[in-house]
Amino acid sequence: IEVLASSASKSFSLEIGDVRLFRELVNKLDTDDENKEIIRNYIETKNYPALNDFLDSIGKNEITHALKKLPRLFGGEEIFEKTSKLFSDEKIDAILSNLKDLYKKISKIIGSGTLTVDLGMVNRTDYYTSVIIKGYLEGYGDEVLSGGRYDKLIRDFGYDVPAVGFAVNVDA
After folding, report:
1. Residue 2 CA, distance from chain mean position
2. pTM score, two decimals?
3. Which residue, 99, 107, 114, 108, is CA-closest to 19?
4. Per-residue pLDDT tens digits of the chain, which is 172 residues long
5. Sign (positive/negative) of CA torsion 105, 133, 129, 85?
6. How far is Cα 49 from Cα 32, in angstroms, rounded to an integer?
């Protein structure tokens, strides 16, 4: 928030999501990793027709129905209730509860008008383990800040600690 607020624009927005929601849903499907990647790509690019057709080829059930809705689940606090009506189990409920708590904390700092929940953020980068963020500046169409939680990445370098980080596109 401080990085975004320190820009020349001063007007920014922040998006938050959680990659675990997608992973929990897609791992309930009886399909291989290649198909899961195809689904992830269609959700990430918000390619609704291709996503719907592909999921229909896998089968029609509550999981495929929820995955079809995932790229449309963005907005404010109302997203949490909409999502809980699509699919509910102990893990999904815990993920949504954690993200909702984070949403409320960030809203107290920046206001809900500049904060968006986007459950269709299903980053291609596999090292993210839960919350992911993207930041935008007014007048610039691409993200200028991105990052998230990656609890296992540093372990690959010999030090097993959880971490959160972000990168800033300073050229933007």
Report:
1. 21
2. 0.89
3. 99
4. 888 888 877 789 999 999 999 999 999 999 999 999 999 999 999 999 999 999 999 999 999 999 999 999 999 999 999 999 988 899 999 999 999 999 999 999 987 778 999 999 987 767 789 999 999 998 888 899 999 998 888 888 888 888 899 999 988 7
5. positive
6. 21
